[in-house]
Amino acid sequence: xxxxxxxxxxxxxxxxxxxxxxxxxxxxxxxxxxxxxxxxxxxxxxxxxxxxxxxxxxxxxxxxxxxxxxxxxxxxxxxxxxxxxxxxxxxxxxxx
Length: 96
Known about the structure:
Helices cover 80% and strands 0% of the residues. The chain has 3 helices and no strands.
C-alpha cells in the first residue's frame, strides 16, 4: 500500500510540473515571446491546455475575475501540495 501512496505522490509532483509549465507557456504566448504559428509550439500549447484545463476550470468558476491575472494555477498547486502533505503525514504513518 505504501508503494501506491508513493506512486500517487509522484503523479501529483509531475502534474504540478505540468501546471507550472502551462503557466510559463501562457505567459510566453501572451507576450509574443514564442511563435504560436509554429506547429511544434502550437502542439505543446494544445497539450498543456488539454491536460490542465479540466482541473483549472472548476477553480475558475469559484474565484472572482481579477482582470488579466489568473490565480487558478496557484490555487491548484496549493491543493496539490496539501494533498501531498496529507498523504505523507496522515495516511502513510497509519499504514506503517
